[in-house]
Amino acid sequence: MKTALLFGLLVILVGATGVSIKAMVSDRPAQESVVSYTSQVALPFTHLGQPWGVAVDAAGNLYIADHSSRQLMKLAAGADAPTPLPSEGLSDPTGVAVDGAGNVYVADNGNDTVWRLAAGADKLTALPIDGLEDPDGVAVDAEANVYVTDYSNRRVVKLAAGAASASVLPFGTLRGPVGVAVDSANNVYVTDNPAGRVLKLAAGTNEPAVLPFGSLHHPTAVAVDARDNVYVLQMNPDPVLKLAAGATIPTPLPIYVGSKAAGLAVDTDGTLVVTDFGEHKVVRLAPGARTTTTVSFTDLVYPNGVAVDGAGTVYVTGRGDNPVWKLGAGADTPTPLPFSAKTDPVGAAVDPAGNLYVADFDHRQLLKLASGARAPVPLPLNGIEYPAAVAADTAGNLYITDWTGNRVWKLTAGAEGPTMLPFSDLRDPQGVAVDAAGNVYVADSGNNRVLRMAAGSTTATALSLTDLNSPTGVAIDAAGDVYVADRGNNRVVKLAADSAIVSALPFTDLNSPQAVAVDTAGTVYVTDSGNARIVQLSPR
């Protein structure tokens, strides 16, 4: 098989159905509205080999170039299954494009050819573009002019509608053009893969401009939407970046490393489609609006723990003169709770009776502030070295992670001391959670995993969460979904109950998220420690 290049990207499916975000932090703007991508689903393409290029027409129909199967596929808008299109003669199809009349264009890397499948036709015809060597990307504008990245010849060619030969566009010195896109004004965009950049050639000009994406890591595909926002796919922990029209700084979209991806397309409403040839999937990421609002937390220096009770009251631990705070449901201003400034609080939990528990790390104790009490009291924790996190079940039993002792303890309600749970081979355990059935979950930070010990069991199993980097927080919702603060990757991921579907939640610009909590309504709270804020993600 003759292929110009194979690049791997990792994609994690985002399964949220739409959210709003609220950030609670001092010294930040009061409110800003942004457009985000909050719902990603796998499309019903089955038995794919290596889905590569992808295109979408104005009606929402998708076209996929299946590289290894040498097949062109179409998924009609709203359909449950794709249909194969005439593909005889294809060798190694890579890029695909579709024009306003429904004609489909395919860059065939193996045959050094660009093919056209006319709307309703039963066979492909070769376009008159001579001298191609490893063509990779293809695009078509509203006038049916065709643009092709000629990778090994380091050029971009244009075949004008009805022309008998192609011309070379003035992109200057390219090192390896791969992706190509064209906007409504016929400006042409190209990813120069080895050079790590995206170029724009404005219509009618002879010199391209480098777009301000910064130093990209092997950009493979580019797309532009109806509002002239530009999207690029790269090999990076932030694989998809969006450069809004007129902006000078790109924004990473919530698609995270999880498998290999090659193709990128965007439809008229801003929905992204990504081909994942490593997992033989095609995924779609839909846009949705969200609002970010800030609320001041006075003197909160370094937020660590977060907990939320059944009424929606949020409790936060941090550093400073007032190390523990309470924010009532619907309130805009938090109030400090009566904890000493000498307290070194990390994890926090609240039980059904409204009692608050705080792990005091430096003082090696667990503090309880009873509902309505004026001062906290220490609980009996003999044998625990450095408590890092705490969780409470519906019966009032407490679960504590011992960070340096590499153990997990249970303090039964009314007991005089804790008992050790049979977790083994822990390394710097931090977050802990317990579900309604009594199953215990631990963020085993040093081993980059999350463990689950079923109620009554003596052994723990690792959850199907890969690519974690120092997970520090864990929470469970009423449905049994698991949420993890993946500190080293600056993200929060969700593992759906009884499945292996992992979603990266659409938080943006996190910096060392430490803890996570979820309330009965499904609202997720995260301590964004590096940004000194608490972020709230609410379902719409």
Helix content: under 10%
> What is the CATH topology of the largest domain?
Neuraminidase
- Poorly predicted parts: 1-37, 289-296
Could you give the order of strands across the largest sheet? 1-48-47-46
CATH-defined superfamily of the largest domain: TolB, C-terminal domain
Overall pLDDT: 85
Q: Beta-sheet strand percentage?
A: 35-45%
Question: Briefly, what CATH class of the largest domain?
Answer: Mainly Beta
Give the second-level CATH assignment, the architecture of the largest domain. 6 Propeller
Structure write-up:
The protein is mainly beta and 540 residues long. The protein is 0% helix and 43% strand. It folds into two domains: 20-292, TolB, C-terminal domain (Neuraminidase, 6 Propeller), CATH 2.120.10.30; 303-314 and 340-539, Neuraminidase, CATH 2.120.10.30. The strands form twelve sheets. The protein has a four-stranded antiparallel sheet with strand order 1-48-47-46, with no helix packed on it. Strands 2-25-24-23 form a four-stranded antiparallel sheet, with no helix packed on it. Strand 15 (177-182) and strand 16 form a beta hairpin. The chain is elongated. The protein starts with 18 loop residues before the first strand and ends with a strand. Mean pLDDT is 85; it is low at 1-37 and 289-296.
